Amino acid sequence: MGVFSGILEWIVGTFGILSLFQWIVLFSVFIVYIYWSWTKNYGVFEKQGLFSIPPKLFFGNTKEIVMQTKAFTPFHQDIYKQFGERKYGIYYDASSPVLYIKDPDLVKQVLVKDFDHFVDFGFMPKEITEMPINELGLVNSVGEKWKSLRASIAPAFSLKNIKSIGTKINAPALDVIDAIGNSPDGEVDMEKLTGHYAIDCIGRIVFSMDFQTIKSNGNEIVTNGDKFFDIWRFFFSTSLPKIARLFNVSVMNPKTANFFISMSENILKGRNGVNSYPNDVLGLMMKIRDQKLDPEENDLQGQRQALAAKLMTDTMISRTLIQFFLDGYDTVRSLLSIVFYLVATHPEVQDRLMAEVDDMVTRVGANITGDDVKELKYLDQVFHESSRIGAVAFTLRRCTKKWTIPGTDVVIPEDMGILIPIQGLHSDPKYFPEPEKFDPDRFSPENKAKIKTGTFLPFGMGPRGCIGMQIAQMEAKILMYHVFRKFHLEPTEKTVIPIKWRVDHFNQIYGGVTL
Ligand code: HEM
């Protein structure tokens, strides 16, 4: 409603009250403009010899996703197959041609070697990325701003600086154990529970607070976290960025964004009054801001530390805090749901995993630390294999400096998107034989070394790879340890086997994960 009344206000404000004829002319011009701007790029790269999957009017190659007739994972696995043995080609994201890269060496080149040409994410057109209303931290930052921002907040995400992270996460993991134990019929919705766990981990790691999400079976944080993305806003803004910018339509649900902004600001205000630095991520960011970190001996690190202090304003701190909710909730919930689903449906894996966990229990009991986790080798294999099967479908970069596809004369212009098909690579039998099989031994120490670089990317790769990877892995592994220390999981009548994906969500299992 807001958009349409905005458009109407703008028209009336600009042109005054119009006659019916003028309305018809205006509407026709608008339709012709939309059609032209939508289709003007179709076929451009094909003339230079690149293969493409023929685009459908308005949808490009995304019709099944937009119409929700196919889930993200199988959709992207099929697209990957359609490119056959080609190393790259053109994929149409609605009206935009995107360079689709299949070859792992080229993937490495884009994400690491030639990173300077691909600094920005390509999930949103540049026009809307830079709108203040869409500015929610690192993910949305571009160019030099991103570089400085990432360098300044990196210490807050490193495990070295959160030494007690493992111990902190034991508390929410024990709450999960209680919730499973208290389930009256022995049936547990693991998807819901792992989501609550992800929120409580953020509370402990970032704020040293108990949000009590698990204990109270949900709260306002979960309700808002579930509403962060409005699909219509995303499609509207990415398909018609100029109009979205004109009418200030944000990609995120503004009420939800405001909820997290004011929550983060309030916690920070409360802390600013107290002259101490608790041992958590917020405490670390405050130390960076106040230049209270131990000085670095190395010159370069010292310079970075000084730069970080300059950038770490209160606004920056609260934006970074939101990042934890934005990126650390849904992702962790999805991955942990997949872990538990896959283990429950593969008893032989569960037996081996429980044997390893039991051995650790005799030594450390319920108080596992980050260092102990490193010794759980099979658990690590199970985690990696689950993240192969349950990875996000793709990641996107935007070309920030003209780039020539190696060995060709084809020039990729600034602002063009580059798609890295994570799920396609993970499901390619060339790199992962029998890809549909859940086989944690692919990641045994001897096999892991054989995995080709650029083919396994659950957290992306290179300077723009996932900054929360270590935290996410620790959260997942600690919970796996506690759950398999206490329980044996089995599918229920509700469990859909083999795995199927929901069409209305990026990465959730069809039928849920009731175990
Ligand atoms: C299982 C959990 C997670 C998965 C599978 C995941 C996956 C990813 C992927 C695939 C990317 C894109 C990387 C690329 O394109 O190279 C990414 C980026 C990012 N992730 Fe994660 N992530 C997870 C958890 C987290 C957590 C817990 C946080 C923060 C607390 C986080 C923060 C971020 C941020 C800030 C970026 C953007 C980095 C940048 O712009 O420089 N992620 N993540």
Automatic annotation (TrEMBL):
Pfam families: p450. InterPro entries: Cyt_P450, Cyt_P450_CS, Cyt_P450_E_grp-I, Cyt_P450_sf, Insect_CytP450_Detox. Heme binds at residue 466. One of its GO terms (cellular component) is endoplasmic reticulum membrane. It is found in: Endoplasmic reticulum membrane; Microsome membrane. Belongs to the cytochrome P450 family. One of its GO terms (molecular function) is oxidoreductase activity, acting on paired donors, with incorporation or reduction of molecular oxygen. Its cofactor is heme. It comes from Tigriopus japonicus. Keywords: Endoplasmic reticulum, Heme, Iron, Membrane, Metal-binding, Microsome, Monooxygenase, Oxidoreductase, Transmembrane, Transmembrane helix. SUPFAM superfamilies: Cytochrome P450 (SSF48264). The chain crosses the membrane at residues 7-36. This is Cytochrome P450 CYP3024A1. It is a peripheral membrane protein.
